[in-house]
Design a protein that fits this description.
There is one protein chain. The protein contains 2 helices and 10 strands. It has 139 residues and is an alpha+beta fold. It is globular, with a radius of gyration of 21 Å.
């Protein structure tokens, strides 16, 4: 009986190790059922971005309540997730990268609306329109 338990334990360890090796470099285990890899092209977009002084101020308060009292940060993570906190508003979702453009589907945390956005990278700045308001971000 001890031999059977020992053999089963060794087999379970072997299966676990082979599964870990199959994930490959750049892959991370999100949970037991899902493996996420680094999104191709993310490295130009990755990191924390902040509203730039090049952002047009008109219209910001309508879209982002308490814009001057709270955050102004956009974060792009290498595993395909994106989020921001601007004023009292925020959104989170997932993205894909195409050349110099990041296309995301995010859910607004205040309105619980799903919105598609496109961020364009040019000259070290990210630009996008959110609810018809142009936004510019820098690192």
């Amino acid at each position: 009986m001890k031999k059977i338990i020992t053999i089963m334990a060794i087999a379970a360890i072997a299966v676990f190790l082979s599964g870990s090796m199959l994930m490959g470099e750049g892959a991370t285990r999100k949970d037991d059922n899902e493996v996420r890899t680094t999104v191709p092209g993310w490295d130009d977009f990755a990191g924390k971005w902040y509203l730039s002084s090049n952002t047009e101020i008109a219209g910001l308060e309508k879209v982002f309540p308490d814009i001057y009292a709270f955050g102004n940060e956009l974060e792009i993570m290498p595993d395909g997730r994106i989020s921001w906190h601007i004023g009292a508003a925020g959104a989170a979702g997932t993205y894909e990268v195409y050349d110099n453009q990041l296309v995301a589907c995010v859910t607004d945390i205040m309105e619980d609306d799903e919105v598609k956005i496109a961020l364009t990278l040019k000259d070290g700045e990210l630009s996008m329109k959110y609810k018809a308001v142009p936004l510019v971000f820098t690192k």
